[in-house]
Amino acid sequence: MSISLDKLKALRKQAGLATAAPVEPAAPMAFVGAASAAKPAMGDPAALPVAPDASVSSPASDTAVASRLTPLPQKPKTESSGFGWAALRRLLATRNRAIAPAQQVERGPVDRDLPGTEIAPGLHLIEAFIPQAIPTQALSLAFSKRPEESVAPQDLLFFDTETTGLAGGTGTRAFMIGAADWHHDAARGEGLRVRQLLMSTMGAESAMLELFASWLAPTTVLSSYNGRCYDAPLLKTRYRLARRGDPISALDHVDLLFPTRRRYRGTWENCRLATIERQLLLIAREDDLPGSEAPAAWLSYLRGGSARNLRRVGEHNHQDVVTLAQLFLRLVQAEADERAELALEAER
Fold first, then answer.
1. Other C-beta atoms within 10 Å of 17: how many?
2. pLDDT in tens, 88-137
3. CB neighbour list of residue 130: distance below 8 Å, 6 or more residues apart
4. DSSP at 281
5. CB distance 41 to 20 below 8 Å
6. CA pair distance 156, 318, nearest whole angstrom
């Protein structure tokens, strides 16, 4: 007699061992009486005594056999095997940390102090005075290929702008205009007067354009460094967009970039204003903010940021217009020296 595989599975299922691995059917064995049969090992289903005919069984015999079956020990579930609970808890903890709001860092008050005096809503005027002797004679424009022309020193207005971008166009505006001129002050004497207009809001542009126009006279001669191609056209555009008259187009304009290039091209690595003032005028700037970073400094201030970099923009602009005045005098002197040498050689 032998027990069938299906019968064995049914018995195992009845005993609660359905998830255990299947076992091979037991080998045939003769049925002997219960008194003379060897006691089978506990938990070994192959050694269990079976009915004489596996196909014919009674409920009593099935219950007796099932009562003698011992469930196989199952492998306990551990947190280290596979993707356990510990790994799941670690994943959830990581996720909770990722979505937790960042803690607010306590900071001090933001530095929002701007230099100068607010003369209109959002418009600041910054003034400085550098004592120096005003040239006593008219300055020749021969260095600018205008040998028959000259200009009175006090008619010159050196100017430079700081803008919201370097590409130009109608979307670019000047948020700072710096100007320097030789001026005689009753209290301070002779010197170079530096005036700067700084916008701290978008709505201050109209007031800034109006005040800058008041600094210009019909006899004013503008002087800049690449201002003929960039600064002047940009300001003209802003005047037109503000529906104001253009005070710039009617004025004479001496751009120092082109005569500087003609005289010093190839002498140094480039003819940028910073290079010229360092190599020719021996001016060394400290903690200078490059002009390319000026737009970011202004936009950061408008968004509630610190005014520190915006003050550095003002210092950069101040030095630019002071350098223009010194460069103008140096170009006039260099042209005069060259003409004197040519005259001496002609006499020899």
1. 19
2. 777 776 656 554 454 444 467 888 999 999 999 999 999 999 999 999 99
3. 191, 192, 194, 322
4. S
5. no
6. 16
